[in-house]
Amino acid sequence: MSLRTRTAGIMKFKAKSFAACLLALLINLTFGLAFAENIQYDSGAKRDPMIPLIGPDGLISQKGGRSDLNIEGIIVDKGGDSVAIINGDVYKAGDRIGEAVVVQILKDRVLLSQDDEDKTLWLREEIIKKDTPVE
């Protein structure tokens, strides 16, 4: 078998493979678009995985999950009067935020309870590092 015959055979195979892939892609796109209207995601009170964790500013977002609560700061008092600034308002242990109750405020997170389910709101890592004293 000559080189020209082998090359022609390979080209025919590549052309058939390309045509098959193109046909499969067109079928997938056609049926995918036809049924796309019927697809709905139910997060079941969990974070929607289609919403990015990292925002356009490069920071990890507290939003887009189960709540729209954003911790802006935490003031820890060893005497037990710690407060957290959440969405611009000040809260302490026992306060209600919507349907949730603040259970505990720690230096890097706030523990909430809602409908017999515990939730944790984390303070962004950049804030913790900036406010941590250097020893």
Please give the structural blueprint.
Layout (H helix, E strand, L loop, with lengths): L2 H33 L35 E5 L7 E4 L2 E4 L3 E2 L2 E6 L3 E6 L2 E6 L2 H7 L4
Antiparallel strand pairs: 1-2, 2-3, 4-5, 5-6, 6-7
Report on the structure:
By secondary structure, the chain is α+β, with helices and mostly antiparallel strands. It is built from two helices and seven strands; from the N terminus they run H-E-E-E-E-E-E-E-H. The protein folds into two domains: 3-38; 71-131, SH3 type barrels (Roll), CATH 2.30.30. The strands form two sheets. A four-stranded antiparallel beta sheet has the order 4-5-6-7, with no helix packed on it. It has a three-stranded antiparallel beta sheet with strand order 1-2-3, with no helix packed on it. The chain is elongated, with a radius of gyration of 27 Å.
Give a summary of the structure in a few sentences.
30% of the residues lie in helices and 24% in strands. It has helices at 3-35, 125-131; strands at residues 71-75, 83-86, 89-92, 96-97, 100-105, 109-114, 117-122.
